[in-house]
Amino acid sequence: xxxxxxxxxxxxxxxxxxxxxxxxxxxxxxxxxxxxxxxxxxxxxxxxxxxxxxxxxxxxxxxxxxxxxxxxxxxxxxxxxxxxxxxxxxxxxxxxxxxxxxxxxxxxxxxxxxxxxxxxxxxxxxxxxxxxxxxxxxxxxxxxxxxxxxxxxxxxxxxxxxxxxxxxxxxxxxxxxxxxxxxxxxxxxxxxxxxxxxxxxxxxxxxxxxxxxxxxxxxxxxxxxxxxxxxxxxxxxxxxxxxxxxxxxxxxxxxxxxxxxxxxxxxxxxxxxxxxxxxxxxxxxxxxxxxxxxxxxxxxxxxxxxxxxxxxxxxxxxxxxxxxxxxxxxxxxxxx
Length: 336
Hints:
7-stranded antiparallel sheet; 7-stranded mixed sheet; globular; single chain; Thrombin, subunit H; 7 helices; disordered N terminus; alpha+beta
């Protein structure tokens, strides 16, 4: 994407917001400050109908959110001056199990994995999906995940997949189980998109978490149709984790679900995020990171999302720590 000027990150590579095309839906002014309200049923149907297989295939990925080396000195100075302001608030460890019961975990046959097609099957192939929306008059795409929730209608993604440069994205739909331009489980248009207070106010990369609420399709709620992953908060660092998404920049093309796995690190440079060796590219932002992932069932506890990378540290992905603010966002979404 060109011309982005986030206060906290450089405009090089927005992993999550993915896709530009010549044809676009009408978008609000770039300076719009408030999220769209509940979408009328007619507008939701129009948004779903707009995203044809050809348009979804034609979407080109935006770049991964990136942090350049020159940003680190300023960030270090701010952190030294006010260390409390640069700590992600935590709370008690909490987890919500997946909607479907999990089976005993088999031996880890594909761990660690720096990036490749997911061929293991399981529920992740239906809960994970691509997100499509209009950003500044252009068509764009991200990744997202259906999670267990009270309303059965909650999708988790990255904050910059719902709002960027002060503007909320419009014509937002979630396509679970997307592959090769197909929507095997339908197209779910958002009635509401949300993000953390810190991302909403300053686009703080530590809080790059977003959510969407999608109304029923053909009388079914989202998780009744595709299932829902579990979610977990305050799980700590240095964990075995799996990351999923739909990268669409070379060497990927957005047609398949890709994953990475490994033992994570805690970012000691610009953020308080988790880090993982992973070569996913533009278009994968917002895809889920799981702890306690079971390869046999394809279920786990979502504990982060694909968010950003450093320009000087290739093939490494970072995702925000799910602390108190991510939990509040999840509760707000599932209560909508």
